[in-house]
Write a structure and sequence with these properties.
protease (chains A, B); Aminopeptidase; Alpha-Beta Plaits; alpha+beta; globular; homodimer
């Protein structure tokens, strides 16, 4: 095994510079979804490519129809070494509501918190701080050994917060260039600051928008009320049927391919020490709601859902207006679990609405996109290497966890490049991802860099 | 009987000026419910008082806590003549959705339609066009005879579309000044352009706004979905329970005081020649929806309802956003029929929501106002006089009809001033009241003025 110890020492000694570089990255308002920040987003891509070139990689900014990709290759490793593909994104969520930030979102500020200093800025953890964990680990390896122990390709996108529109075309067009042995992504979290985690399950998503059209125009509810279809009432009746009284989704066939988790998995989850009360308190709630007879972790990690994400129709201003609206709309999405076929669920959802559209109404159903759930094989030698590396850095073995969210790139990388993904991330539940005052604990940042450095060393010994 | 014939001739000769004055009135964006239009609404009141003073009335704009009342007295009639109280409202509904108007809502435009020219503007018929029918009739009487044949008091409010908050305090405070023999209101409709009608039943209203509060802030639907209450889903489940599969309202006690109409009434309604297909076509519909086993007229005139008037929550912009909203809201209202107690229905509605608010949610229930249903006596000499006047102008006897809408002032005038109301209106079902492109047929406007002129003449002979 290559010698990781001096690399870890170097990381400790130069950590102040690693923080400074992260702050530089965080100063770019790379809100890729906002046309006003197009130049900022492109400048951010350029900055990243320059940093990667600076440590001896062959780095380029590659145009797409939207925001560019940053691609870098490092071929300094010995012949025959495993080849790792690192993915991340340099675009960030909009900073709104801006007035709730305590420090300016694009002036990264070091603030003392209960776990020591943290950096507060939009993108601090999602995903700029996390991509810097592996870039800084590679920088340290290069500084100490002049080379990486494994062959590395990095690709960073600028449209993750905008549905990754250019991702699949780019993967398809650059399939050969991006092929590797396994993909590594740091965009997930830990159980807490001392308990590392590797995510092995991600839920998928099927997102739709529905509109029920009824009368040709808004009607006076006195003149017509009682004699004509009311699209809002009709839509609510359909939406109410999405769940039964036990919280089970009523879309026909919804659970057909859903498997129960294995007893040993259930056992492992019970022993994780998940703090249900703290999780709910983070949402301002005291009780959990959901499928009857399931724990919170089961509900979030291993069970599919159907949530209405938005609804609108009729008069929504101040005061009272006595109308029967001509139409009513909702956005809704199903979180999916492994083995559920997203396209089949989307089709079933559409049939669910079509079958319940009442006389006098016309249904508009828009498929807003699907992505399958992911289950990463837990018996891979790369996963073992990552576990050992995290154990080494944290002094405890990482736990294998699920995640209720979706990372669509994982499915795309599997489908297009044929690669499994290793999800090793360093965020915390309270990092305020997508919210004002997003932050990244510097202790998480440092341990992230250290874990990636140790992983690079251990990956070198993997013989696929 | 005073000589009405020259008055009718004068109305015909000067109709172009009557139209021009209506257009002037329609140019005021008197959206009383909208604070941004407070000055416009007050200017509209001033304009009306000036017009009434111009024809020799003692007119004043009277402040209230909200929008002002316009009050005018005419004492030009012979001693001992009956005293009529005319009510109307000069405020209008908001023009939203503004983008659906084919001409600007506050630039009254004369458009040629299948029944000749019509004026298109917000308030064209509700209620500015209708109040101008009696004001212009009085102007004509004054122009021809120098006096009215009956004693007249007019009061016009500016908050009818905002629950008439100042109306009752004003009636109470000015009880003596407003007392008369009977009240006349033009805010209802005809069967069609050639078939006049007098309305003898009006539904009441109970309007509420509900909000379900769940999580303390919008949550990521991946991180939390399936384990926490979703206020939109929860609200839809409650709203869906408002009706059973037969279209009956499920609020406990809702039908307790609802009486079936008399067999002779049902018979009269069947013989009105109501064109159900045309009524539905006016709403762009081919079939009626509602309480099973009831005709459209029964549903609209004699049965109570519960319609959702607006709903909102979560993400309603372009594209997809995967959130669980912290709250969801709806506006809803019940149309009520005679003998239903509005306060009791409002209380039952509140209990309905409270009983169904799930764990993890908090209910905000706002009573936005109630008004009882009305049944006008059909044996009064003033009603007979109005029938004869309409017969004279239209060449056919008016029919007695119900109306699904609510005119809360009718109940207040009865309770506070002790007056019955005569509801003689000139709107048509397809006038797009409360909708974009609201219009008033000029033929209806002219016949309305003529009918009021004839009514003034016939009222003079009524000896109460």
């Amino acid at each position: 095994m290559p010698d990781t110890a001096p690399v870890l020492r170097h990381i400790e000694e130069t950590f102040a510079q690693s923080v400074a570089r992260l702050q530089d990255l965080l100063r770019f308002p790379s809100v890729g979804v906002d046309p006003r920040h197009e130049a900022d987003t492109k400048a951010c891509a350029r900055w990243l490519a320059d940093r990667l070139a600076e440590i001896g990689m062959e780095a380029s900014v590659r145009p797409t129809e939207g925001m560019p990709m940053v691609v870098a290759h490092d071929r300094s490793a010995p012949e025959g070494a495993p080849h790792l593909l690192y993915y991340g994104h340099y675009d960030v969520q909009p900073a709104d509501p801006i007035e709730l930030w305590e420090t300016p979102p694009f002036e990264p500020t070091i603030v003392e918190g209960p776990r020591g200093p943290r950096v507060v800025a939009r993108g601090a953890v999602d995903d700029k701080g996390q991509i810097m964990t592996f870039i800084e680990a590679m920088r340290a390896w290069k500084a100490v050994h002049g080379a990486l122990p494994v062959r590395v390709t990095i690709f960073l996108e600028g449209e993750e917060e905008a549905s990754s529109r250019s991702l699949e075309p780019f993967l398809l067009a650059n399939r050969d260039e991006l092929r590797a042995d396994v993909c590594v992504i740091s965009d997930t979290g830990m159980l807490d600051v001392d308990r590392p985690a590797i995510t092995y399950m991600l839920r998928g998503l099927a997102y739709a928008e529905v509109t029920l059209h009824g009368p040709s125009h808004d009607l006076h509810s006195g003149m017509y009320g009682g004699a004509v279809v009311n699209p809002i009432n009709a839509l609510c009746r359909i939406l109410a049927e999405l769940h039964d009284d036990e919280g089970r989704v009523q879309i026909p066939g919804f659970y057909d391919d859903v498997r129960e988790i294995a007893p040993e998995e259930a056992e492992a989850w019970r022993n994780i020490g998940f703090d249900e009360a703290a999780f709910l308190a983070g949402a301002g709630l005291r009780s959990s709601t959901g499928e009857a007879g399931r724990s919170v972790l089961e509900r979030v990690w291993s069970r599919p859902t159907c949530d209405i994400n938005g609804i609108w129709g009729g008069y929504t201003g101040e005061g009272s207006k006595t109308i029967i609206a001509s139409k009513a709309s909702a956005k809704l999405s199903c979180r999916l679990v492994p083995d559920q076929d997203p396209a089949r669920i989307m089709a079933a959802l559409k049939r669910f609405f079509a079958a319940r559209t009442p006389a006098g109404c016309r249904l508009d159903f828009v498929d807003m996109g699907v992505g399958g759930a992911i289950r990463v094989p837990t018996d891979s030698p790369f996963l073992d290497a990552a576990k050992q590396a995290a154990h080494e850095v944290f002094g405890v073995a990482p736990v294998l966890i699920g995640c209720g969210g979706s990372i669509p790139v994982v499915a795309a990388v599997k489908r297009i490049l044929g690669l499994d993904t290793l999800l090793v991330g360093f965020g915390l539940d309270d990092d305020r991802v997508h919210s004002p005052n997003e932050k990244f604990e510097l202790v998480c940042y440092r341990r992230g860099i250290e874990t990636h450095a140790a992983m690079l060393g251990r990956f070198a010994d993997v013989r696929a």
